[in-house]
């Protein structure tokens, strides 16, 4: 097999790889341009998300920050017009707006800060019910945040809060009414912590899928793959194209992101990394190549999909309520998928021949090769698996938050932090590290501004390197 | 058709951006080319230098010399914070920590809570007064054709290039000194240098500090005629710098400087040609799609350079340690 591959020069193989890349890109362009014509709920939501022109700017000046309000009925997702909404905020800011025919309204704000958004229950058309979740609701608007979502779903069957006009719905029962406990602004500690634990766990499991790929690729080839974030973005965008543009059902979109992600990983290995390994390129240049690849791919994605946020259509209503925690159906299914897949990965790594071979190569490549393991085959499978897991992670992230061309790039450092925390090159370390990082990122927002949450994760990584550079599950001799 | 972009592209030779990137790339060459440190956070050094300079000048009203000193001190502190945990570990740990630290700086300065000090996402304007006060040039317009500069504009360009030349001479002399031989030795074989009784970690730290200071001062040159924008110091800035030093030759003194000139002239030329083609409807893309193309080109150029010509234009293949 090795002989057959020597026939073609590395140059030819690299060019072939780039051609394959260009082909994939042009294929995606065709799909991307189709999106311009399709008018789907996702497009609508995306427009709400990125609304830049406040329709009712205070004191006539165009302001940078705005809140986007959307009122819909839970039962059939129809938009509710004519609902009065009061927004109050710092500096005595107070404004009353009414939702338009699509149930939408954008409010320009004078400055960043925390705003209170109150739905006037008496203005809701009869029979449409009451808003679910917190009402009034605190909305954190950071500098330059536009169209910060404040979406309300109305339901007639929301238990509990059907008494008086201003009685809070279940989400806040016991907090604002009794004013019993300690912390900030009449919200109890549990109300603050538990939703964050839930989102943190979900997010941790999502990055765990991607981290395992990084860790295995590092373990088997020694390459710190800075282009792994783009594998995640590839999955997100595949999911978006499938579910948002081609309107295939969610599960099929997720599976196709998984499969195409694997194909993408395989193509990358075949077209780029394998020829480079054959050339005997050292690890540091390989890392720089991965950076170049990351930069090129990221902007190819932007070229095709544009700079805006893309929303994968999903059911955003509350599916499961556990005390203060409201979960959408995707918030329940995503972690289940993650856990099942992670268990499957663990089974493959621990119980199957190829899994044992992978761990052997990660442990000592030369020894593994000497004992008859086909190292190239193992690396190829690791690339396919890593790409597939990253694609799956990306598609599920699409159901967790809006995605864009830089979704993967923005979580790449969290992935690295997880992998370093758990121990570079160990698959299970990556899993543990991811969950810790996911929790840390979301829980840190209790104490620090929300746009600093990534900083907390990165700082923890640096501190870990100071005191236990091999990570939680790593081995001392790897760090040399 | 408007062909003004051609002289404008060659005018990049004198742009503060080119000068600043040349200096920052020179600093990165000290790290990566000469010492073998995989610093992926040079943008962080640039941001730290820029913020220390701009905050002390604009918010505290310090004189120029004090602000420059603050900028250097900032870079030294940043180097110590990065170096202490990572320099004793393998190269890839330094790469991850530096890229993370650079992002930490960028996220932190954008935090609304401290925006009275850092200007948040808007950055800081007007750190130029102290520098322009020293301008001895008569207040007339200089240059020719489409390339015209005010006296202040020419002043920063002259001083900028002088700083780059001085820094290049300094690096050249350092690399010929015993100190330079030791850091190059660290690049080739760390254990061999250690066996000679040298404190390898400390030499790496010195190299990190030296290159970091160059990155910090580079930002001062860039922000004096423009303004300090946090998002200009994201990861892509570091990747641009890597492309620049690999273009010119990562183990040479002249490489990063010529690399920076070529990089910006070529980038500006391609931008100009693309604009020409797009506005005349010769290319089936929109002007929004035109923006990412330069980054795609840089990414591909970076890959091709590393794979096919790791020693760059001026480099010596034997010395390009990472060519395997």
UniProtKB/TrEMBL annotation, chain A:
It is found in: Cell membrane. Keywords: Amino-acid transport, Cell membrane, Membrane, Transmembrane, Transmembrane helix, Transport. SUPFAM superfamilies: Cna protein B-type domain. Its main location: membrane. Residues 167-186 have a biased composition (Low complexity). Residues 159-186 are annotated as: Disordered. It is a multi-pass membrane protein. The chain crosses the membrane at residues 197-219, 254-273, 280-301, 332-350, 381-400, 412-441, 453-473. It holds the Pfam family BPD_transp_2. Belongs to the binding-protein-dependent transport system permease family. LivHM subfamily. This is Branched-chain amino acid ABC transporter permease. One of its GO terms (molecular function) is transmembrane transporter activity. One of its GO terms (biological process) is amino acid transport. The keyword Kinase does not apply.
UniProtKB/TrEMBL annotation, chain B:
GO terms for molecular function: branched-chain amino acid transmembrane transporter activity. It is found in: Cell membrane. The keyword Zinc-finger does not apply. Keywords: Cell membrane, Membrane, Transmembrane, Transmembrane helix. GO terms for cellular component: plasma membrane. InterPro entries: ABC_transp_permease, LivM-like. It is a multi-pass membrane protein. This is Branched-chain amino acid ABC transporter permease. It comes from Galbitalea soli.
């Amino acid at each position: 097999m090795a002989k057959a591959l020597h026939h073609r020069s590395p140059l030819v193989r690299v060019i072939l790889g780039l051609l394959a890349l260009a082909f994939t890109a042009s294929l995606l362009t065709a799909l991307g341009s189709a999106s311009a014509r399709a008018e789907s709920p996702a497009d609508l939501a995306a427009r709400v998300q990125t609304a830049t022109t406040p329709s009712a700017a205070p004191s006539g000046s165009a302001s940078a920050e705005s809140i986007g309000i959307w009122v819909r009925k839970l039962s059939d997702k129809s938009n509710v017009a004519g609902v009065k909404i009061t927004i109050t905020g710092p500096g005595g800011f107070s404004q009353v707006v009414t939702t338009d025919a699509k149930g939408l309204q954008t409010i320009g704000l004078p400055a960043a800060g925390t705003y209170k958004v109150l739905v006037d229950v008496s203005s809701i058309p009869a029979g449409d019910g009451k808003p679910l979740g917190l009402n009034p609701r605190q909305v954190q608007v950071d500098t330059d945040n536009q169209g910060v979502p404040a979406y309300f779903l109305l339901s007639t069957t929301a238990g509990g809060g059907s008494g008086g006009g201003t009685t809070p719905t279940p989400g806040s029962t016991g907090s604002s009414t009794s004013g019993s406990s300690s912390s900030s602004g009449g919200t109890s500690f549990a109300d603050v912590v538990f939703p964050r634990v839930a989102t943190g766990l979900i997010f941790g499991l999502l990055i765990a899928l991607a981290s395992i790929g990084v860790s295995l690729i590092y373990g088997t080839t020694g390459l710190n793959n800075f282009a792994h974030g783009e594998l995640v973005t590839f999955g997100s965008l595949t999911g978006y194209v499938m579910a948002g543009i081609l309107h295939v059902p969610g599960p099929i979109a997720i599976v196709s992101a998984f499969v195409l992600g694997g194909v993408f990983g395989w193509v990358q290995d075949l077209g780029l990394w394998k020829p480079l390994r054959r050339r005997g390129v050292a690890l540091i240049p390989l890392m720089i190549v991965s950076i170049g690849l990351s930069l090129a791919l990221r902007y190819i994605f932007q070229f095709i999909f544009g700079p805006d946020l893309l929303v994968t259509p999903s059911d955003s209503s509350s599916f499961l309520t556990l005390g203060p925690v409201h979960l959408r159906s995707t918030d329940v299914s995503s972690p289940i998928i993650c856990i099942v897949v992670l268990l499957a990965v663990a089974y493959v790594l621990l119980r199957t021949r190829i899994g044992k071979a992978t761990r052997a190569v990660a442990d000592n490549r030369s020894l593994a090769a000497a004992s008859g393991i086909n190292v190239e085959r193992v690396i190829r499978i690791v690339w396919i698996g890593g790409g597939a897991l990253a694609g799956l992670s990306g598609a599920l992230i699409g159901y967790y938050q809006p995605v864009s061309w830089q979704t993967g790039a923005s979580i790449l450092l969290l992935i690295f932090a997880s992998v370093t925390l758990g121990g570079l090159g160990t698959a299970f370390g990556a899993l543990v590290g991811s969950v810790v990082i996911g929790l840390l990122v979301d829980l840190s927002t209790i104490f620090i501004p929300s746009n600093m949450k990534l900083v907390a994760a990165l700082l923890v990584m640096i501190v870990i390197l100071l005191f236990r550079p091999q990570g939680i599950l790593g081995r001392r001799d790897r760090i040399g | 058709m408007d062909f003004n972009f051609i002289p404008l592209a060659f005018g990049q030779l004198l742009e503060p951006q080119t000068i600043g990137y040349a200096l920052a790339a020179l600093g990165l060459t000290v790290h990566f080319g000469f010492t073998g440190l995989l610093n992926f956070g040079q943008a962080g050094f640039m941001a730290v230098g820029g913020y220390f300079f701009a905050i002390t000048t604009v918010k505290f009203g310090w004189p120029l010399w004090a602000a420059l000193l603050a900028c250097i001190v900032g870079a030294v502190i940043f180097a110590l914070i990065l170096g202490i945990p990572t320099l004793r570990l393998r190269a890839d740990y330094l790469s991850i920590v530096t890229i993370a630290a650079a992002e930490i700086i960028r996220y932190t300065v954008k935090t609304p809570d401290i925006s009275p000090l850092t200007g948040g996402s808007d950055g800081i304007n007007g750190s130029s007064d102290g520098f322009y006060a020293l301008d001895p040039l008569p207040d007339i317009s200089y240059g020719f054709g489409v390339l015209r500069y005010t006296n202040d504009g020419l002043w920063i360009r002259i001083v900028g290039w002088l700083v780059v030349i001085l820094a290049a001479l300094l690096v050249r002399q350092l690399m010929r000194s015993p100190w330079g031989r030791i850091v190059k030795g660290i690049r080739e074989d760390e254990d061999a240098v250690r066996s000679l009784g040298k404190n390898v970690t400390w030499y790496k730290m010195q190299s990190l500090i030296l290159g970091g200071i160059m990155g910090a001062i580079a930002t001062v040159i860039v922000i004096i005629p423009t303004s300090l924008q946090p998002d200009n110091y994201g990861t892509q800035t570091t990747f641009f710098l890597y492309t620049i030093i690999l273009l010119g030759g990562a183990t040479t003194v002249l490489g990063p400087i010529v690399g920076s000139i070529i990089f910006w002239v070529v980038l500006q030329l391609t931008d100009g040609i693309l604009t020409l083609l797009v506005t005349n409807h010769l290319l089936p893309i929109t002007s929004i799609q035109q923006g990412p193309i330069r980054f795609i080109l840089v990414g591909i150029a970076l890959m091709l350079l590393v794979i096919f010509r790791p020693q760059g234009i001026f480099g010596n293949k034997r010395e390009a340690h990472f060519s395997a």
